[in-house]
Design a protein that fits this description.
The chain is mainly alpha-helical. It has 5 helices and 2 strands, in the order H-E-H-E-H-H-H. The chain is 63% helix and 6% strand.
Length: 94
């Protein structure tokens, strides 16, 4: 059971629009209407509508994909993790 599924992070890193449910840590990565779409768990109609929207609006899929890749680079990449750990270490070391 992953709190933040690697498949979502990998899809975003690949520049793909993501459609997911807002459970666990997913909302930390997927920002609704910015890097993808978040639909309520079990809401098949909302899921179908989100998929249809991405298929019918290719520019939206590209925009979400680009925003998702940027979010991964800024918040979830090794460089971002290193910077966050260094900042934390510097606070503790004071």
């Amino acid at each position: 059971n992953e709190g933040l599924p690697m498949a979502i992070l990998e899809a975003m890193a690949a520049g793909l629009a993501v459609i997911a449910t807002p459970v666990g840590g997913i909302p930390e990565a997927v920002l609704d209407e910015h890097t993808g779409a978040l639909v309520a768990p079990g809401d098949a109609q909302a899921l179908a509508m989100a998929v249809r929207r991405v298929l019918q609006e290719p520019a939206l899929a590209v925009r979400w994909g680009e925003a998702g890749r940027e979010r991964i680079e800024q918040h979830f990449s090794p460089a971002a993790s290193e910077a966050a750990l260094m900042a934390l270490w510097q606070q503790v070391a004071r």
